[in-house]
Every structure is written in C-alpha cells, then in structure tokens.
Amino acid sequence: MSKTLVVVVPDADILAATVASRLVAKIVDAQAERGTASIVLTGGRIAAKVLRTVKDLPAAKAIDWSRVDLWWGDERFLPAGDPDRNETQAREALLDALPLDPARVHPMPASDGLDGDDAEAAAARYATEVRMPFDLLMLGVGEDGHVASLFPEHPVLSETGTTAAVHNSPKPPPTRITLTMPTIQEADEVWLIAAGPDKTDAVGAALNGDKSKPAAHATGQSRTYWLLDEAAAAKRY
Ligand SMILES: O=C(O)[C@H](O)[C@@H](O)[C@H](O)[C@H](O)COP(=O)(O)O
What spacing in Å lies between the alpha carbon of 157 and ligand 1's midpoint? Predict the structure, then answer.
C-alpha cells in the first residue's frame, strides 16, 4: 500500500539541501540493490537548485554515475540547447560535471530533432524509449498545482499513453512534451518539491484533497513524498 509523507523544512535553501541529500542516498541505495538507478528529473527553479547542491555534495562521489539512467518528466518543446529547455538547465546545473554514460541520459526530443516541430511524433518517439519502472520521479509543483506539463483543466490530463504532446500550455512555452499521469503513477517513489509563498495555495489545496489540482494525483507505487518549505506548506491542514 502506497504511503504519503510530508516533510517541511524552514526555507528554500534548506529544502534544496534536504532534497539533494535524499537524492544521493536514494541513488546509492538503488545501486546497492540492483547496480543501477533510474531517476526522472523535473524542470523549474527549485529543481535546478537541488541539482546545483548535489554538485557540491561530497557524498555524491559515492554514486557510480555511469550506471544511472536519467529521464525527464516533461520538456519545453524548443530547439536543442535552448536555455529554457529543462534538459539544458539540468546539464548546466549538474549533468555536465558528472561522468555519466551518454547512452543512459534520455532527454525528451527537441523541436529541431528527428521529428522536427511535430510534438506528437516527438512525444511518441520518447514513449518508445522510456523504460520503466523508475526508482524515483521528481516533480516541481506550479502555482496552479500543475506537475510536469499536466495543467489543471487541460485535455492532456486525460491522456493515458506513456507520453503526450501539450499544446496551449498556460505556462510558456506553449508547446511541451510530458509523461502522462498514469506514467507518473508507475514510479516507485514520487517526490513533489515546492518552496515559497507562490506555492502555498496550490500545495494546500492538493494536500487537502482538491482533486482539480494535478499534483493531488501524483503518487508513487511505494511512497509519495511532499518535500516543502514552511511557506509552501502554510495552508496544509
Ligand atoms: O516547465 C517547467 O518549469 C516544469 O515543467 C514545471 O512543471 C515546473 O517544475 C513547475 O512549474 C515548478 O517550477 P518552479 O520550481 O520554477 O516554480
């Protein structure tokens, strides 16, 4: 039976440090168990802060980075190397500094890739690449309660394939690729990460059972962790 735990820490810096430590431990444990770890990264500011923190953690040297598979929960459908791509931000924050196996790094397609600007084809291509289960899937939480590129009241919420193209995203850019909610729910652990007063209402609503918030549906098979700072957690009752 899946369990949900809420961890609240004082502020965004301490949250990034907490998540970074947990992430390193999670990868070390997964590798101790199976030799590999399969991790889904998220975009957004707090995620970048977490990755920058991992870079400076001595314990990260305990990880065999050549045996880590990295995936993305969603991507802004922009040309390769665009500074707004979640992939570019993750590479700059951490990945470029790691001895990763390039064959195990699985960014979502770019809009100048093999499928050009056909987001549906690009999403379908990623679906053929994805290998589940994921040990861990991390999600930032938007001000409106979105996770990955699954926005409230958006038709993408009813998609049941592995991935989906998103058009008319309320958060720019308008075209994105995302894992669907059923795919997110296949992960062994899901971590929802949010900091700051802009997230108070969305986090409060989702944790208090408002099912109109996509974040309320993001659960892992074994564990779901909400990793929050005090500001984001302020309306959780
Ligand atoms: O495009 C993105 O940025 C992500 O797809 C999005 O899901 C993000 O993780 C949240 O919006 C939280 O982002 P912040 O941490 O920057 O608020």
Answer: 17
Q: Are 178 and 137 in contact (CB under 8 A)?
A: no
Token pair for 77: 């459908």
Tens of pLDDT, residue by residue over 109-125, are 999 999 999 999 999 99
ipTM for the assembly:
0.95
236/164 Cα distance (integer angstroms): 31
Mutate to test the pocket of ligand 1, among 19, 40, 46, 226 (most ligand atoms within 8 A of CB): 46
Domain 3-229 indexed as CATH 3.30.1480.10: no
Q: Give the model confidence (pLDDT) of 119-166 as tens digits.
A: 999 999 999 999 999 999 999 999 999 999 999 999 999 999 999 999
Phi, psi angle pair for 50, to nearest 5°: -60, -45
Domain extents in the chain: 3-229
Query: Which residue among 85, 88, 141 has the greatest number of ligand 1 atoms within 8 angstroms of its CB, and so is best to mutate?
Result: 141
Q: Is the pTM of this model over 0.95?
A: yes
Question: Which H helix or E strand runs over 201?
Answer: helix 200-207
Instruction: Name the nearest CA neighbour of 194 among 61, 6, 2.
Output: 6
